[in-house]
Amino acid sequence: MPELPEVETVVRELRGELSGDVITSVEIFRSNPIVQGDCDLFQEQLRGRKFLDVTRRAKYLIFHLQPERYLLAHLRMTGKFIVCDPLPKPSKHNRVLFHLKSRRVMIFDDIRCFGTLEVYDNLADSKSLLKLGIEPLSSDLTSDFFMKRLASSKRAIKTVLLDQKIVVGLGNIYVSEILFRSRIHPQRSAGSIGKKEWPLIIKYTKKILVEAIENNGTTISDFRRVDDKTGKFQQFLQVYDKNNHPCAKCGVPIQRIVQQQRSTFFCPECQR
Ligand SMILES: [Zn+2]
Fold first, then answer.
1. Is 84 helix (H, G, I), strand (E, B) or coil?
2. Could you name the CATH architecture of 4-130?
3. Is 150 helix (H, G, I), strand (E, B) or coil?
4. Does 13 qualify as catalytic in the annotation?
5. 101 included as an active-site residue
6. pTM across the whole model
7. Active-site residue 3, yes or no?
8. pLDDT at 10
9. Domains of the chain: which residue ranges?
10. Of 40, 53, 113, 181, which one is least surrounded by beta carbons within 10 A?
11. 228 pLDDT exceeds 80?
12. 56, 59, 80, 242: which is the annotated catalytic residue?
């Protein structure tokens, strides 16, 4: 599942591809992504609109259109955007095609079909965006924020960092890496994380996300960039998916455990 660096990579690439182009028509092959339900309205709302910008909030892509309107997209498990010219043979996983004035096509492709597309005239009307926590790369991510919010939390630190209502954009891959570099055991309660440990978590959260964005994200299975290339950050992972491999720091085998039905990878020696 794409996490913040993968979505940010897609956003940057789409911004470069789309700015100034115009949607001439929208073709819907499968209605599942259209969460607001009305496919005719969706097509009508987007026809003739020009792309001004593409930005990100949490793992949502926000297409800014002119006259003012917003297309909000979430990739979920396997969603991806491809901008191509000319249109290759349509794949059976192409869900929605956006035909562009430049004669190119932006394809929303989604194997599992959990991805979503929504249209708003005002972003404040989107309930999805309202419930989100803070952006990890913003200055809002501070030790004070965590300590106030989580002082008496008994939830595992791994689970808390995955909670999109607290911090957005982090998933299994990056949280495993952040806790490894911070030398914190993933099952420790968030309330037990000390004054000197929160700054480490914050430092490595920012550092790992920035490095991952510089490497165009991590491709483990499905993630592809807009041009169908893969990300490169998987080469720098130290614990994720390394079950039984020796830890790069101490040589002890990396362990896999399951927390809330999701895999966590950690070094039992380095993370106590
Ligand atoms: Zn180790």
1. strand
2. Alpha-Beta Barrel (3.20)
3. helix
4. no
5. no
6. 0.93
7. yes
8. 95
9. 4-130, 143-266
10. 40
11. no
12. 59
